[in-house]
Amino acid sequence: MAGQKIQAPKGVSEYVPPRSEAFEFVRESLIEPARKAGYQLIELPVFEDTELFTRGVGESTDVVSKEMYTFQDRGDRSITLRPEGTAGVMRAVIEHGLDRGQLPAKLWYSGQFFRAERPQAGRYRQFYQVGIEAIGLDDAAIDAEVIAIADAGFKAIGLSKYRLEITSLGDADSRAAHRVDLVKFIAGMKLDEATTARAALNPLRLFDDKRPEIKDAMAKAPLLVDYLSESSRAHFEQVKKYLDVLGISYVLNPRMVRGLDYYTGTTFEFVHELLGAQSGIGGGGRYDGLMAELGGQSLSGIGFGLGVDRALLAAEAEGVINENSFVSDLFIIPLGDAAKEMAMKIASQLRNAGKSIEIAFGDRALKGAMKGADKSGARYVIVLGESEISSATVELKEMKTGATSSVKIDSLISAI
Ligand code: HAM
Question: Model's pTM, two decimal places?
Answer without folding.
Answer: 0.93
